[in-house]
Amino acid sequence: VQEVPMEDVYKYGIVNGVFIEDDVYKVKDLVEKPSINAAPSNIAILGRYIISPQIFEMLEKTKPGKNGEVQLTDALKLLLGKEAIYAYKFKGKRYDVGDKLGFLQATVEFALKRDDIKDQFKAYLKSIIKKID
Predict the structure, then answer these.
(1) Global pTM value
(2) Among 12, 71, 83, 96, which residue has the least CB neighbours within 10 Å?
(3) What letter would DSSP give residue 116?
(4) What is the pLDDT of residues 25-58, one digit of tens each?
(5) Pairing label, strands 2-3, 43-44
């Protein structure tokens, strides 16, 4: 999990949890893409999981939610009724590639790290910036 700006909570599954030790939360509740007013926190689920096999039973019981999709967050909420769930607070840079701007930012930053294309890509970006100004 990672903190996100409150105005972005509607983009993520959000955790309501209790901080129990360094970077670890005990999850009390999960809400899939809540409105700002309904969000229990600004702690966003990043989509990396270690889950018990019982999640498959919970997925079978989960009804489609937003956009007619079965949400893993909803299945995790059911699982929470049977076993404890913990969340680890991620440290580091994260790219939201589910967001158009985040996808472009990740692409540009990773392209600039590649030895085989970074010089040509920098030159390209500079030429684009000159056209903007």
Answers:
(1) 0.75
(2) 83
(3) T
(4) 999 999 989 999 999 999 999 988 999 999 999 9
(5) antiparallel
